[in-house]
Specification:
Helices cover 45% and strands 12% of the residues. It is elongated. It contains ten helices and seven strands. It is α/β, with parallel strands linked by helices. A seven-stranded mixed sheet has the order 2-1-3-4-7-6-5.
Length: 277
């Protein structure tokens, strides 16, 4: 595990910015208190889910060569509006393709999106909501003007980024409100798994749950404002350390979504799949 130490020097931070930052930090700690109250319930859920998974693993481990025990998935074709248009039976996990035959990948196929690889789908089922106006969304959310280097580590840019990320750049909340997504669905995307609310940006061949879609848009926002990618990722890692009381930094899947958003161009198609070639 990589452990980062974060030193913040607030040389040119105004009293108003500092007051706003204190409000944000108080809000974070209040959320942690609320999370602690739900810890027992979540622990029980995880243990029950783990026990179920172990039972299924034991059931299928020795029966993989029997046709009735093998998962039968589909090659699933999805149109530009996000709807299933064709299903072709296959052995093994589902695979997803656009109508040009380009394979589509989920951002977190090992954890929160894994159920999509083993789910049941029918013609006209909706897989994702397409978003083509990424730049318009970012411009509407506003920009931050960082210093010349694009680093906020030793300037008030750190505070500006924190305030913005808990306001106009809180893209998961923005998507939730725009598409009227329930709290239950948000929780599924965050850590429970089982979400059916997904987004796809431009010609990218990656599909994101709402939490990861928010990370993608955040990455594009910091890029559009001129921040260095390394500085942005360092800030996110610090924030996750605060939220987890020093236990965890940002996940690889979140970092991947941020990087994809940071480097986003509408016609950039093949973001994932290089490991399959």
């Amino acid at each position: 595990m990589i452990i980062k130490n974060h030193t913040i020097v607030l040389e040119d931070t105004s009293p108003a910015e500092m007051a706003r930052f204190r409000q944000i930090m108080i809000g974070i700690w209040r959320q942690q208190i609320e999370d602690d109250k739900n810890a027992a319930e979540m622990e029980k859920y995880i243990k029950d889910k783990y026990a179920t998974t172990k039972k299924l693993d034991a059931k299928y481990a020795n029966g993989l060569n029997d046709s009735d025990e093998r998962f039968l998935g589909n090659n699933i074709t999805i149109n530009s509006k996000g709807y299933v248009t064709k299903l072709i039976k296959k052995e093994g996990a589902n695979k997803f393709f656009d109508e040009n035959g380009t394979e589509l990948f989920f951002n977190d196929p090992k954890i929160t999106d894994k159920h999509m690889l083993y789910g049941y789908f029918e013609i006209k089922n909706k897989i994702f909501t397409p978003i083509v106006n990424v730049l318009d969304r970012i411009k509407a959310a506003g920009e931050i003007s960082p210093n010349v280097s694009g680093s906020y580590k030793n300037t008030s840019d750190y505070i500006k980024l924190a305030i913005k990320s808990n306001g106009d750049w809180d893209f998961p909340t923005g998507l939730k409100m725009e598409y009227k997504i329930s709290n239950e669905e948000m929780n599924k995307a965050g850590y429970n798994g089982g979400s059916r609310t997904y987004f796809k940006f431009g010609k990218h061949n990656v599909i994101y749950n709402i939490a990861d879609a928010g990370q993608f848009l955040w990455g594009n926002a910091v890029s559009n404002s001129g921040f260095l990618l390394e500085s942005a990722l360092d800030g996110v890692d610090f924030y996750e350390k605060v939220m987890s009381k020093g236990q965890n930094g940002d996940s690889a899947e979140d970092t991947q979504a941020i990087k994809n958003g940071y480097n986003y161009q509408y016609y950039n198609q093949k973001v994932r799949g290089w490991d399959q070639e």
